[in-house]
Amino acid sequence: MEVIQNTFLKFIEFKEFSLWDVKRLFLTTIKSDYQIISLKEVIKERSEKISLFNFPNEKFWILWVNNKEWIFDAYEELGKNINQSYKKMHLRDIAYNPYRVNVGSVWIKLEQHIFDYISPAYVVFSCDTKRLLPEFFWFIFKSDLFNGLVQENTTWSVRQNLKFSTLAEIKIPLPNLEEQKRIIDNYQNHLKEADEANKKAIELEGSIEKYLMKELGIDLQRREKIINLNTFKVINFLDTEKWWTKYLLNSLDLWKILKSDIFPMRKLKELLEINPLTNFKKNLSISFIPMKYISDEYWEIMHQDIISWTESNWYTKFKEWDLIWSRITPCMQNGKSAIVKNLENWIWCGSTEYHVLRNSNSNIKLEYIYTILRLEKILKFAMNYFTWSAWQQRVPKEFLEDLQIPLPPIKIQEKIVSHITAMKDEIKGFKRLSENLKETAKMELERGIFN
Fold it and tell me: How does strand 323-326 pair with strand 337-339?
């Protein structure tokens, strides 16, 4: 595609005045090896809304959407329980959220989707399959180049809005059906390869927990049965360190969840400092790490900012090789935690929603502790300890203090860390391969259509 832009003077043919809007008169003009058409030639809106409540005893099957790429069969409901009208989606119809189309909220109904009614908030349309394959246009719709055209054409009130009438006026290159099919097949082949790489990463992630349980002599299924059998709890007075119902109900399980058959159990507060005081000299520049800079996918800090010590007053402070562990939902459940390294002046500060764990024990490998605190079982169990503050849920310090973990000799800790680090590197490789394949698919799609 050749983009033609003239920022000084632009001539427009009278026949192009479909919408008298200055913004649209200066839209990007596209050229392509394929014919250029207006979408109104090949798409048709399904605007009819059906009042399902007029059929009170009939069952209706409702479609829903996720935040990624797909619609899905959500639930069935009697008409008498449905208070609003719905739109009906037919096979290969496309739907989009007119207020979120710029972030990829576009979906297509495929053969695996059995249900057929969708919220009237979405715009639904069909394609003339004799000229435009719906799958082909769905891929175009989600491309960066087409998204740019969409943003040029959307109207603004309080937020961006892509009406169907506006979409219909956008022009696209239109290959013949055979060429559309070839482009689709090429794109899907790359996506299949990306999915295979991602599946391998997911399988490896699952095997980390299995490996760790085996090395530590933990029969997780047996532990869960023991915990679940406790319908009535008797607590020794000596164990009542804190008079807090949630703590008393769950404290007995903190040693059972990871009980090892071969290594002694120790509370974290006996092994590490938790939320220690961190002092540093004034007039230093220090590293700043907000929550968004921690990758819950790669277990590491992806970026850091440098700020002055005067800007750090209200933040949590920590040092080189400290472990920071998010205490707030949903970051805690997502695994927002990391061991901090490569600090400016060896000092960091960051979100007030971190718990900080510091190790000064030569018989403890902090990466070993970190691996345990990243376990899905631990993250889920921590939810039992949530407290409410300022309308948000947080895991208190007491959970970490009283969490009991197996403590193998340092050599075994090092062996476990080394093995899991290699697994994490392999996972990262598969995930990056998946991302690269998706990006290649998108680039080749855009090049194939827009030159």
Answer: antiparallel
